[in-house]
Design a protein that fits this description.
By secondary structure, the chain is mainly α. About 65% of the residues lie in helices and about 0% in strands. It has helices at about 5-20, 35-40, 50-60, 65-75, 85-100, 105-120, 125-135.
């Protein structure tokens, strides 16, 4: 069984979250099933490793808190108006920053920027960077 690099794991977690999280508005907690995630990964000939699954499960269980944090930091952007790609990336990276103490915050931000460059619009990377940078600053 092949294991994914952390970047690959983040990308597959992002793709799953993009497809399965509700669009717009502050979301509710979602309990994803591991088997559902594994089926999704098999569509891409990927293995849903433990790191990727931990991200998906953590984001799903913390959507209300993540969305609240994102909304507080995004000036002039309501959740329902954010591009869906950007929102999925922000939820994933915010989860890492707020709940994964073993991952340096700068790594989470840099990885989110790379995912935004690959999957987002032209200005996605700077938008994601701006929000996540504020999230790491003391209030």
């Amino acid at each position: 069984m092949n294991s994914l690099s952390r970047r690959q794991a983040r990308e597959i977690a992002f793709q799953f979250l993009y497809g399965y999280l509700p669009e717009g508005g502050a979301g509710r907690q979602i309990d994803f099933s591991r088997s559902e995630f594994e089926r999704f990964c098999s569509n891409f000939d990927q293995v849903g490793d433990d790191f990727a699954w931990g991200l998906v499960d953590g984001v799903g269980k913390n959507v209300p808190h993540l969305d609240s944090s994102i909304v507080q930091l995004s000036t002039n952007w309501r959740i329902e108006r954010m591009p869906r790609v950007d929102l999925a990336i922000l939820r994933l990276a915010a989860y890492e920053i707020l709940f994964c103490a073993d991952i340096p915050k700068t790594v989470s931000i840099n990885e989110a920027i790379e995912v935004a460059k690959r999957f987002g619009a032209e200005d996605s990377a700077s938008f994601v960077n701006g929000i996540l940078d504020k999230l790491t600053k003391p209030s």
